[in-house]
Inverse folding.
């Protein structure tokens, strides 16, 4: 699932998986590992999410929304 989402993001941004790995200072072999089913470590997932301006949950297929909107409510007075 990760690879399909990652690949689609690369295509929609006009880039390739290897080019993204290079920008993130990862080896070209890394993209091959992901294509074969390996899931990136947490710190790398965060870097990829930052690169594509999406959430880690989106990268992992846990949501269909690429951006997470957080609502802040102020604490009620006591």
């Amino acid at each position: 699932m990760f690879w399909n989402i990652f690949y689609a993001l690369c295509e929609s941004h006009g880039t390739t998986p290897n080019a993204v790995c290079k920008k993130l200072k990862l080896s070209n072999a890394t993209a091959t590992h992901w294509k074969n089913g390996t899931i990136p470590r947490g710190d790398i997932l965060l870097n990829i999410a930052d690169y594509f301006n999406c959430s880690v949950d989106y990268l992992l297929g846990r949501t269909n929304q690429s951006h997470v909107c957080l609502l802040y409510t102020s604490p009620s007075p006591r």
Q: What stands out?
A: DSSP finds five helices and no strands in the chain. The chain has a mean pLDDT of 89. The helical segments are 2-12, 17-23, 28-35, 42-52, 56-59.
